[in-house]
Design a protein that fits this description.
Largest sheet: 7 strands, mixed
Helix content: 25-40%
Structural class: alpha/beta
Number of strands: 18
């Protein structure tokens, strides 16, 4: 490989993980090209929650404080029943103290804008379908084919999502993600007139969450056990009213405030079986392409951000990045698949449908909560307190991070 030039990276996919990897590699001197199949960087989904682990990862590229400034959750929040009874309450200050930062809810488009603003002009190509033609090895570059021609790369970052074509090309025998048994809805609406405490509400085979955004709007999400591939006969707003219109306030009002076409619906899939590795040749997989997980811990986007920062750490600053990819797999595969399994267990609990099982679940949650919020938050130990393996290298960024958990 030519060591007199800057190393070249091609990122396939312009989502959160791909853009974070692009920024991290760019700051280490890499020449970056991001290929996004869609005509514009319009994120799929409404909101995203960034926990302290992702914020610390973003500190590495100088964006953590900008994200923290968007935190809107203040005071109490917690878990409720459909009739409104609180099963537990959690104070935002307690969460911040335990994990070293707040939970930040923001619109995905806001995060995309923050990340793209840290990239050089022309680095992102939209309307650019990409196919991995050659994964490369230590002796030859990887090759990505686009309608505009072939691109050679010292590193290809496969961030092409849950249905990753790159993953299928690298590991054709792997079964891929499986249906998790439930579907989700997401929406963003103006804030109701009457104040409310942020909450998640668990019913029988259904959950709802209502969270504030910094700009004054409300991000809401819902999930329900249902066969794969279903769609409402009229509108998804009408479907939400049928399923959640009788639940406690502000839920019915939030649904009513949504436009007829303002509700997103997606079936949930997760990677039940681990990949053999998160790399092959000069290609590294990040985010859902590597370890799609249920949203029940809110960690899908957070883990994609972690992936990106750790990948840049192991790739280093030269064309011999391929030598660092086994270390990337060693760091990321056990951690992310552990979170996949934990999210799946949480999903089973949240989506219980039997009246008897739901009654036992709610009683246990309420009982545990009486011993203090620390016991409830303990499930995020080892997740939200993660730190990146490198010091921050973005100019002007304060703080050091020295250990991966």
């Amino acid at each position: 490989m030519d060591r007199t030039r800057a190393p070249r990276a091609v990122v396939v996919g312009g989502g959160i993980g791909g853009l974070t990897a692009a920024v991290a590699l760019h700051q280490q001197g890499w020449e970056i090209t991001v290929l996004e199949r869609a005509a514009a960087l319009t994120p799929v989904g409404a909101g995203i929650g960034l926990a302290p682990n992702a914020q610390r990862a973003l500190d590495v590229i100088g964006l953590g404080e900008q994200v923290r400034s968007l935190s809107a959750w203040q005071g109490d929040g917690g878990l409720r029943t459909p009739r409104g009874r609180w099963l537990n309450r959690t104070d935002s200050a307690v969460t911040t103290e335990r994990f070293g930062g707040p939970l930040v809810l923001l619109h995905r488009s806001t995060l995309v804008d923050i990340l793209t603003s840290a990239l050089p002009g022309g680095a992102v190509r939209t309307g650019a379908a990409a196919t991995l033609t050659d994964a490369g090895d230590e002796g030859r570059p990887a090759v990505v084919t686009t309608p505009g021609g072939d691109l050679e790369a010292d590193l290809v970052v496969a961030a092409d999502g849950i249905n990753s074509a790159v993953r299928r090309a690298l590991f054709p025998a792997h079964p891929g993600p499986r249906y998790s048994g439930f579907t989700t809805w997401r929406l963003v609406v103006p804030a109701p007139v009457r104040p409310f405490a942020p909450h998640e509400t668990w019913g029988r085979g259904r959950i709802w969450g209502t969270q504030p955004l910094k700009d004054g709007r409300i991000y809401a999400y819902a999930a329900a056990v249902t066969p794969a591939g279903g769609r409402a006969p009229d509108s998804e707003k009408a479907e939400l009213l049928r399923r959640f219109g009788g639940w406690h306030e502000p839920i019915p009002g939030i649904v009513e405030a949504a436009g007829t076409d303002g509700v997103l619906r997606h079936d949930v899939h997760h990677m039940a079986e681990a990949l053999p590795a998160y790399h092959h040749g000069r290609v590294a997989l990040v985010g859902d392409a590597a370890h799609a997980m249920q949203p029940t811990l809110g960690q899908g986007g957070n883990q994609a951000i972690e992936d990106a920062i750790v990948l840049a750490h192991h790739a280093g600053r030269g064309p011999d990045a391929v030598r660092g990819l086994p270390a990337y797999t060693r760091d990321r595969l056990p951690r992310t698949m552990g979170i996949v399994r934990q999210a799946t267990r949480t999903g089973r609990t949240a989506m219980l449908s039997s009246p008897a099982a739901v009654a036992v679940r709610d009683t246990l949650v309420a009982a545990v909560s009486r011993f203090g919020p620390g016991l409830v938050l303990r499930s995020f130990d080892g997740i939200a307190d993660w730190r990146p393996p490198q010091h921050t290298y973005a100019a002007g960024t304060a703080g050091t991070h020295t250990a991966t958990r």
